[in-house]
Structures are given as C-alpha cells and as structure tokens.
C-alpha cells in the first residue's frame, strides 16, 4: 500500500516524525483504508508480549551480531533470519516445534 498524503510520509516511505500518531488527522486516512490501529498504553508491556519477544529475538540473534553495510544487505539478512525463525528455530513455548509446524499443524 502506498501513502499519498504528504504529511503521512517523507519521500523515503517512512512515517513522518512530526505526525501526532493519535491525532484524528493521522488516523482518518488509516481508518478509511481499513487499517487496524493498535496502540499500547503506557505501562502495558504485556499487551503485545509475543511481538515484543519476537523483536527481542530478532535483535539479539541477528541485528546486534551483524554488520550490515547497506540497507539491501540488512533486508536480505533479515529475510533469511525470518525464514530460519519460522521454519527451523524450535520454540520452547511451542513445545519445541517451529512456528511453521504449529501453524500448518505438522509434526
């Protein structure tokens, strides 16, 4: 999906830092496109615990130990990591199965 509102992106396809993410001006075009809006409240770390744990794994198992020279190299390396994470990495919380095994109910 491409955002065309100039205040919504800065030409580098990143969200503008000047936007007030909870403002109606920001939320209206997202809602119009059917984008589900999710914002955690302050002090609600457990609201998104599974995604927070995923990002911890990504950072400590891939990002912090890698020395990317370009954005393209980072993208390629992260893409490979997510294939590994979903198809090869066993998860204790999933009874030592991979996310793909659980998702597709493979054993």
Query: Treating each run of at least 4 consecutive H or I residues as one helix, how many helices?
Result: 4
Low-confidence segments, given as residue ranges, are 6-10, 12-18
CA radius of gyration is 18 Å
> How far is the first residue's CA from the last residue's CA?
36 Å
Structural class: mainly alpha
Largest sheet: none
Count of beta strands: 0
Residue-averaged pLDDT: 79
Strand content: under 5%
- Oligomer class: single chain
Provide the number of structural domains.
2
How are helices and strands ordered from N to C?
HHHH
Helix content: 40-55%
Shape: extended
Set down the secondary structure blueprint.
Blueprint: H1 24-32, H2 49-63, H3 71-87, H4 99-104
GO molecular function: nucleic acid binding
Domain Integrase catalytic: 1-107
InterPro entries: Integrase_cat-core, RNaseH-like_sf, RNaseH_sf, Transposase_IS3/IS150/IS904
Describe this structure in words.
- One of its GO terms (biological process) is DNA integration.
- Residues 1-107 form the Integrase catalytic domain.
- This is Integrase catalytic domain-containing protein.
- It is a single chain.
- The chain is built from four helices and no strands.
- With 107 residues, the protein is an all-alpha fold.
- The protein has two domains: 1-38, no CATH class; 45-104, no CATH class.
- The protein is extended and about 40 Å long.
- The chain starts with 23 loop residues before the first helix and ends with a helix.
- Residues 6-10 and 12-18 have low confidence and may be disordered.
């Amino acid at each position: 999906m491409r955002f065309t509102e100039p205040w919504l992106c800065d030409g580098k396809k990143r969200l503008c830092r000047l936007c007030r993410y909870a403002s109606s001006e920001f939320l209206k075009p997202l809602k119009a496109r059917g984008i589900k809006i999710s914002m955690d409240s302050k002090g609600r770390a457990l609201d998104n615990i599974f995604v927070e744990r995923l990002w911890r794994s990504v950072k400590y198992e891939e990002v912090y130990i890698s020395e990317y020279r370009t954005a393209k190299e980072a993208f390629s390396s992260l893409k490979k990591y997510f294939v590994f994470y979903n198809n090869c990495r066993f998860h204790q919380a999933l009874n030592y199965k991979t996310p793909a095994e659980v998702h597709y109910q493979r054993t």
